Amino acid sequence: MKLFITGATGFVGTHVARLAAQQGAELRLLSRSTSNRNHLPKNADVVTGDLRNPATFASALQDCDALIHVAADYRLWVPDPSEMYKANVEGTRELLRLAREVGVPRVVYTSSVATMGFKYDGTIVDENAPVSEADMIGHYKRSKWLAEQVAIEAARSGQHIIILNPTTPIGALDTKPTPTGRIVVDFLNKSFPAYVDTGLNLVDVEEIARLHLVALDRGTPGERYILGGENLTLKQILDRLAAITGLPSPTMRVPHAVAMAFAFFDETITGKLRGKEPRATVEAVRMGRKMMFAGSAKAKRDLGLHVMSVDSALRAACAWFIANGYAPAPPKSLR
């Protein structure tokens, strides 16, 4: 099978590409010229291009058996939001159009659990939870929701597209790192003195990668599938990390109002005045007011998702960050 994969230098995309290579697929991988390609499979055909201009790599879609579109601009703070919409929304629209034109028979589109209709009370939501654009907090969520609508509409028009909605991936090879990986890095560096009352669904990134390939054969076109694992509060995540590493878990809870004030100050001074990415953003704090708890019964039933403890994935993330110089070794052995 010949696969064209976007986002193969990103966290999830790296795992998808490496697993596909292990399974014997012939790979064409989209990469920007500035991306770190160290973790790409050695036998892959790397295509240089940018999601903001898919026409420049359209010819690489020829003769592919499937497109797995993982790439996205995933930032909770961005100096120019229009670039995020250009990549996530218009880039997806153009890429799907090009795939139709050259006759790529199957597409897996990686959306996000961020497009779901989460509640403030911690209700576990699924693919049927009512949601609209008005529920999307911040540019990242809004751009992913709009991009998902593009994929849904293309599927309704007859294109073979399966939509996957991973929750919060965790594991090794998080080179950037992602916002969730940054939680782990900050914890390992003892830079997490307090926490806010929020919650996430964590899932092993390797299981997300496996389901991307399974979805090519078992997914129903036009359907959305939440790929999740364990629903945990932030405090529970930090306690798990403490048990794994031997480092202390923070005991001080910060009210959302205080976190919002800090984020506003940090975003103004660090982001707007200094032009650097702030440690805390208003968007992230606003998102954190909702418990992002999700259920994955549909993916379990249709795709064979294995819902499991994320302790091994957290341990893998810690070990990788330490081995690659993001943080010092903790008191407790990770083996």
The SS-based structural class is alpha/beta
Strand content: 15-25%
Largest sheet: 7 strands, parallel
**Inertia-based shape:** globular
Order of strands, main sheet, comes to 3-2-1-4-5-6-10
How many whole angstroms does the radius of gyration measure?
A: 19 Å
The ordered H/E elements are EHEEEHEHEEHEEHEEHEHHHH
CATH fold name of the domain at 2-170 and 203-228 and 293-305, please? Rossmann fold
Low-confidence stretches: none
Q: CATH H-level name of the domain at 2-170 and 203-228 and 293-305... which superfamily?
A: NAD(P)-binding Rossmann-like Domain
Mean pLDDT: 90
**How large is the count of helical segments?**
10
CATH architecture of the domain at 2-170 and 203-228 and 293-305: 3-Layer(aba) Sandwich
By DSSP, the count of extended strands is: 12
Compact summary:
By secondary structure, the chain is of the alpha/beta class.
Question: Can you tell me about this structure?
Answer:
This protein has 335 residues and is of the alpha/beta class. It has a domain of 208 residues: NAD(P)-binding Rossmann-like Domain (Rossmann fold). The chain is built from ten helices and twelve strands. The strands form three sheets. The protein has a seven-stranded parallel sheet, sandwiched between helices. Helix 3 links the parallel strand 5 and strand 6. Helix 2 packs parallel to helix 3. The longest helix is centred in the N-terminal third of the chain and has 22 residues. The two termini are 37 Å apart. The mean pLDDT is 90.
